[in-house]
Design brief:
single chain, 395 residues, mainly beta, 5-stranded antiparallel beta sheet, 4-stranded antiparallel beta sheet, 5% helix, 39% strand, globular, disordered N terminus, signal, MRJP/yellow-related, 6-blade_b-propeller_TolB-like, secreted, Bee-milk protein
């Protein structure tokens, strides 16, 4: 795991509030015989905080009457809440709760990961006012989250709510930057001029040039493009990817991004569509300068449908195969082939990983996992079961 260069922005003050109840789950210690290193046994409080589990979204409102009002108006339906992406700073986890269905009162929350806490409180971040649907000065639906070395939290907000029901575009898509130290909004990037009405903005990466400039990359799966935004000069553009990138793919697909930082100081963006059979990359320096044409490289052929779930902010990409609970690590310094895909985690609860997250304080990686397919098909009882678990193994 590596750190980035620092930068600063102007600040706007905000406040914090909100609570969701979670339960903790234990873990079995890894042994030399454990292939994956982490296996979950009976539920109970884990004093080491290695596994945290919760179901749906049980929020604690400022008062009972507020909760009753949210429920009666349909703005709070616990089983419609699911966390899909996360980042960790110290002992705090920040979770993205996309508004896939109605009834999600907050689309970005934070929770305490300190050891010994059995019930985890969720607070809307950075405040209640920033969660208001229809208010274009607030977040509408956060689908990805990135933390840079200056502990600035970057968010991809599609502006579209109820995407699994009847999608409604409340506001233009945006990228938000929030200081985790002050909880103040530092930057809001409106992507309206860089996207289209048909855009499907899915993943976010934040890059730093050797000169210190900050660049934001956003995948637009529908338009076969990557949006590049230069934060320093407040200007962006779109890089249209070669047609070969979508060869053999489906009409509606997922375009994954993974920003790799090599030990020599260079950065490279890896990307692939879920249903295609090849992985591609491009050096970040070409994206920063707008010289992406003809610079895309084919990394290799995928053996199956590859779901990229994160990086270690260094050379490694973590992924799983579609529908599989097994997580692998690929060191990008090695050839892209199965022999170099190392198993590092497997859920024994049939949950699927949606994000691999660096946990710097504990010098490890964590996995955010859930029964996401059941949620997508609306086959839950009280809601999706979600976990933040420690990845134990060679990563």
């Amino acid at each position: 795991m590596r750190r980035h260069k620092m930068f600063a922005y102007s600040k706007v003050s905000l406040s914090i509030l909100f609570i969701c109840i979670c339960a903790c789950v234990p873990f079995a210690k890894a042994t030399d015989d454990d292939k994956y290193g982490l296996f979950i046994n009976d539920r109970m409080c884990d004093a080491n905080g290695s596994v945290i589990q919760w179901t749906g979204g049980q929020f604690e409102f400022p008062c009972p009457s507020t909760k009753s009002l949210f429920k009666s108006s349909g703005k709070y339906i616990p089983k419609n809440v699911i966390a899909t992406r996360a980042q960790i700073i110290g002992d705090i986890a920040y979770l993205a709760l996309p508004r896939y269905r109605h009834g999600v009162p907050a689309t970005l929350v934070k929770t305490n990961l300190q050891p010994g806490i059995c019930y985890v409180n969720f607070a809307p971040y950075p405040c209640w006012n920033m969660q208001e649907e229809g208010n274009c000065k607030a977040m509408q639906s956060v689908v990805d989250i990135v933390v840079d070395q200056n502990e600035v939290i970057w968010l991809l907000d599609t502006g579209i709510v109820n995407t699994l029901e009847m999608p409604v575009r409340k506001c233009s898509p945006k990228v938000w930057a929030i200081s985790s130290k002050s909880s103040k909004v530092l930057k809001m990037i409106d992507l309206d001029g860089l996207s289209t009405n048909t855009s499907r903005l899915q993943y976010l990466a934040v890059d730093y040039a050797p000169t210190g400039g900050c660049f934001v990359y956003v995948s637009d799966a529908a338009n076969r493009a990557i949006i590049i935004f230069n934060v320093q000069v407040d200007r962006g553009f779109r890089a249209v990817l070669p047609r070969a990138v979508t060869a053999g793919g489906r009409n509606r697909d997922v375009l994954y991004l993974a920003l790799i930082r090599h030990s020599c100081g260079t950065a490279e963006l890896y990307f692939t569509y879920l249903s295609t059979n090849r992985l591609f990359s491009i050096k970040a320096e070409y994206l920063r300068t707008g010289a992406a044409d003809g610079r895309v490289l084919e990394v290799g052929k995928k053996s199956s449908r590859m779901v990229i779930i994160g990086t270690n902010n260094g050379n490694s990409i973590f992924f799983r195969n579609e529908g599989s609970a097994e997580v692998y690590r690929w060191d990008t310094n090695t050839t892209f082939k199965e022999d170099n895909f190392k198993p590092v985690y497997r859920s024994t609860t049939c949950q699927l990983a949606t994000h691999a997250i660096s946990d710097y304080r504990h010098n490890t990686m964590r996995i955010l996992q859930s029964n996401f397919p059941d949620f997508m098909q609306n086959r839950m009882g009280c809601g999706a079961t979600q976990q933040l678990a420690v990845m134990r193994g060679c990563w």
